Amino acid sequence: MDDNARREYWRKNLTLMAVLLVIWALVSFGAGILFVDALNEVTFLGFPLGFWFAQQGSIIVFVILIAVYVWRMDRLDAEYGVEEYEGEVHHS
Amino acid sequence: MSDIQTWTLVFVVLTFSLYIYIAYRSRVSDTAGFYVAGGGIPAPANGAAIAADWMSAASFISLAGIVAFAGNGYAGSVYLMGWTGGYVLLALLLAPYLRKFGKYTIPDFVGDRYNETARLVAVVAAIVVSFVYVAGQMAGVGVVFTRFLNVNTTTGVVIGMAIVFFYAVLGGMKGITWTQVTQYSVLIVAYLIPAVAVSQKVTGVPLPQIGFGRILEELNALQTDLGIAQYTEAFTQTSRANMVLITAALMFGTAGLPHVIVRFYTAKSVRAARFSALWALFFIALLYTTAPSVAAFSKLQIFKDVSGTSLADMPSWFTTWASVGLITGPAAADGTMPAVADLNGNGVIDITGAASDVANEVTINNDIIVLASPEIGGLPAPIVGLVAAGALAAALSTASGLLLVISSSVANDVYYKKINPRASEKQQLLVGRVAMAAAIVVAGYLGINPPGFVAQVVALAFGLAAASFFPILVLGIFWKRCTAKGAMWGMIVGLLTTMAYMLWTIDIYGNSEGIWGIPETGFGTVGMVINFVVTVLVSLVTEKPSPQMQELVEEIRYPGRTALVAAHAEGTDLG
C-alpha cells in the first residue's frame, strides 16, 4: 500500500470503529442504565424493555457488533489488497 | 454414598481423565508452543478456549446467584453487561493490532513499544492482577469439592492443583488451549441442560432466554409481598452513576486483562484474531444470556419453597446446603453466620426484605444458586453431577490461563529479557515450568485461605486491569506520539491510585465511605481516566518516539506481512 491508500484504509477503519462503539455505548450505558426507567414503561414478551436491554439485549447486540466489524474489515482488507490467507504464521 | 455423590464422582473422574489425555497428546517442547501454542490455533477453537479461560468460577458458580440475591435483580446487570461489553473493545481496539505486533505477552508489547522500565511495571501489574484473580478460582474449586464429594476444602484444592499442574506444566499454552476447548464444552452443556429443563418445566418454553420473561410479573409481585424491591426495578441499591462506573470498570478491565489479551497472540493471523474475538463472545453470550434466567427461576422457586415453610418441612436441598453452612440465618452482631432458626417463633421460616414488618430469617450464599439449581428445580441426580463437573471445568480452565500468564511473565519478561538473554530454549522452558509450579502452589494456598468471597475478589482485578493496562495499550496503537515516560507514569499513577482507593474503602481494610460514594468496584473507571490523562500529558512534554518506532506503530495498523514488523519480530532493536 502507498501512503495514500494507507491513510484511506485507516480512515475507513476508524469510521467503522466509531459507529460501532457509539452503538455499543447506546445499548449498554444508554438503554440498560441511563434511560432504563423510560424504556421499562414498554413491555415485550413479559420483559420491561429497559431491564431486557440490561440483561439480554445489550449482550446480543455486542455479538452482532463484532460480527459486523469482522465482516466489514474482511471487505476492507480485500479492497486494499491486504487480505490474509489461513496458515500464514509469523512469530518470533 | 448418595446418588448425587456417585454421579458427581463419575463426571469428575471422566472429565479429569479427558483433560489429562488431551494435555498428554498436545505436550510441547519449544517456547513458542509453551507461551502461545505456536500461534497456530484455529479461530473457533481459540474462541472456545478464550470463553473457557474467561468464564471463571465467578461466572459459572456465582453470577446467577449475584443477579438473584446480591441485589433485587436489576442491580446484577452490571456484571452481565460489564463482562461481555469488554469484548467489543477488545475486538475493535486491541486484538488485531496486538496480533500483528506478534510477541508473547503484554509486557512484551509494553517493553518493545515503550521501554524497559515500562516493561517492568507491566510485569508487576500483570502478576498482581493475575494472582488476585486466580485466588478466586481455587476457592471455587474448594466449594464444589466440599459440597459434592464430601471432602474438606484443602483436599479439594490440592486435587485441583494436581490436575492443573499436570496439564499446564506439561503442555503450556498448547495443552491449556486444547484442554480449555474441552472444558468449554463441558461447562456450557452443564449450564444449559438444567436451565432448559427448568424453563420447559415451569413455563413450557424450552428457551430459558424467552421463558424467563413469563415469570417476571409473578416474581415482581412476590418480591413486593415479601417487602423486597421489584425484581426488574432499576436503581434500588445502586445509583445510576455507580451503575455506569461499575459497568465501565468491568468492561475496560476485561479489555485490559493479561490472560485474555494473550489469547489473541495464539491466533493464526490478524484476521483469525478478529474472528477469535467474535467466536469468544458468541460462546460467552450463550452462558451470559442464560445466567439471568437461571437467577430468576431459582429465586422464584426458592421463595415459593422456603418462605413460610416450617423447618421440618424444608426441601432436601435446603437441609443439605444448610448443613455445609451456605444457607444460614442473618449475620449476627459479631459477623458470624448462625444456623437457620425460627427467630420470631411464628412456626415458619421467613425470607423478607427491608420493607417488611417480619424480620428476615435466611441468608443464602450467592455461590450455591447454580450448583443447587438442578436440585431446586427437581432434576435427577446425573444432572446435579454434571453441573458440579461444569463448575470445576470453569474454575480450572481460568486458573490454568492465569497461571500461564504468571509463568510467562517470569520466564519470558523477567528471566529471558532481564537476567539471562542468552538462555537456550531448554533453559527458558525449564524456568517457565518451575515458575508455573511455584505459581500453582501460591494459588492453592490462596484458595485454601481465600481473601473474600469469590466474585468480589475477582471484581477488584478488573478495576486494577482497567486502571493500569487499557489506556496505554490503546494509546500505544492509536497515538504515535505516546511516549515511554508517558505510559510508565500513566500506569504507575493509575494503578497506585486505584489500589489505594480499594484498600481505603474495602470493608476488611479501610471501610471508608470513599469519595462521592464511589464503590471500590467502580473506581477502576476513575483510575483509567487518570491513567489516560497522565499518559497524554507526560507524552506531550517528553521527546517524541523515534521515527522508526512511529513507523512500526503505523505498520501494525495493516494486516499482512510488512517489512518492519517482520524485522522487529526477529529481534531488531528499534529504540
TrEMBL record, chain A:
Name under which the protein is recorded: DUF4212 domain-containing protein
Transmembrane segments annotated in the record for this chain: 14-36, 51-71
One Pfam family of this chain: DUF4212
Keyword Transmembrane helix tagged: yes
NCBIfam families xrefs: Na_symport_sm (TIGR03647)
Keyword Membrane: yes
Native source species: Phycicoccus endophyticus
Keywords: Membrane, Transmembrane, Transmembrane helix
Every Sodium symporter small subunit domain range: 7-83
Automatic annotation (TrEMBL), chain B:
Gene Ontology CC: plasma membrane
PROSITE patterns: NA_SOLUT_SYMP_2, NA_SOLUT_SYMP_3
GO biological process, one term: carboxylic acid transport
Keywords associated with the record: Cell membrane, Membrane, Transmembrane, Transmembrane helix, Transport
Domain of life: Bacteria
Membrane-topology descriptor: Multi-pass membrane protein
GO MF term set: transmembrane transporter activity
TM stretches of this protein: 6-24, 45-71, 77-98, 118-136, 148-169, 181-198, 243-265, 277-297, 383-408, 429-448, 454-479, 486-504, 524-542
Subcellular location: Membrane
InterPro entries per UniProt: Na/Glc_symporter_sf, Na/solute_symporter, Na/solute_symporter_CS, Na/solute_symporter_VC_2705, Sodium:Solute_Symporter
Protein family per UniProt: Belongs to the sodium:solute symporter (SSF) (TC 2.A.21) family.
Listed name of the protein: Cation acetate symporter
Organism in which the protein naturally occurs: Phycicoccus endophyticus
